[in-house]
Amino acid sequence: MNRITVDAAQCSGCRYCEMVCSYHHEGKFSPTLSRVSVIREDKYGMDYPVLCRQCQPCPAIDACPPGALIQSGDGTVRVDHEACTGCGVCVGACPYDAIKLDGSKALICDHCGGDPTCVRKCPTKALIYGESEFISEHPEEVFQDLRRRWGIGV
Questions:
Q1: What torsion, rounded to 10 degrees, do the Cα atoms 54, 59, 62, 67 define?
Q2: Can you list the positions of beta strands (E) in 7-111?
Q3: Is 1.10.3720.10 the CATH classification of the domain at 52-108?
Q4: Which CATH architecture group holds 1-50+114-154?
Q5: Over the stretch 42-99, which tens digit does the pLDDT of each residue have?
Q6: Alpha-carbon span 127 to 121, nearest angstrom
């Protein structure tokens, strides 16, 4: 299954991914409407985009009372906005804090239908779309490598 992964060594923290995501989905430049959130990891001295890791099985799907989170044929988790009540249970169930609420609807990365805008527009190429299990399954190893390369906490 294709996923969006992050090369944290390339992320500059510019937040451009947030802007293009919100504009693509909502027609507005607004980080609160984006399906990706850039967070500052002070412990590691870096910025890091957070978005849905497309877990399989997905705990947020299992937790959603109205059944508004669905997994499409390609494995991508999506929101059925007609069924979503905005209860927020999925937000609490997501182990990666990758789901947001905007009023009465959940916002989750849907890979833009297989051509993620954030990946195409990232100026530093920190976002990668394709088959990749390692980064999402071993984030601590990735951070240890970055700390060694950058001399952080060595």
A1: -50
A2: 37-41, 46-50, 69-71, 77-79, 100-102, 105-107
A3: no
A4: 2-Layer Sandwich (3.30)
A5: 887 788 899 998 888 899 999 999 999 999 888 899 999 999 999 999 999 999 999 9
A6: 9
